[in-house]
Amino acid sequence: MQIVFDFAKRDDAQSAYDNGPRSKPPDSEQHVFNHETGHADDMNNDMVREYNQSEEDAEKNAETFANTGQREKDTLSKEEAEKRVREIFGVPKPVKEKKKNE
Q1: What is the pTM of this model?
Q2: N or C: which end of the chain has fewer CB within 10 A?
Q3: What are the DSSP calls for 60-89, one per residue?
Q4: Sign of CA pseudo-dihedral 23, 28, 34, 40
């Protein structure tokens, strides 16, 4: 499978929005990426269904995938990230060493 991103269409839509002929801004590049990744995810999960579904259904599923991805939190604080990495790899929290005077 090969995915090629051609942002020319999106860039043309942005120019049309910036210069007046288009009243609604185009989707962000991130959204376009997520949308196309949705097609790849469908293909990866069930290639036959992806091939046999209508273009309208394929676009609907890809758009749902893109919108779901945008709702997910994409940043973590340093503490959250460290906690999450420890959970993923099963690493216990570091034990603070007691000072000799305590």
Answers
A1: 0.59
A2: C
A3: HHHHHHHHHHHHS-----HHHHHHHHHHHH
A4: positive
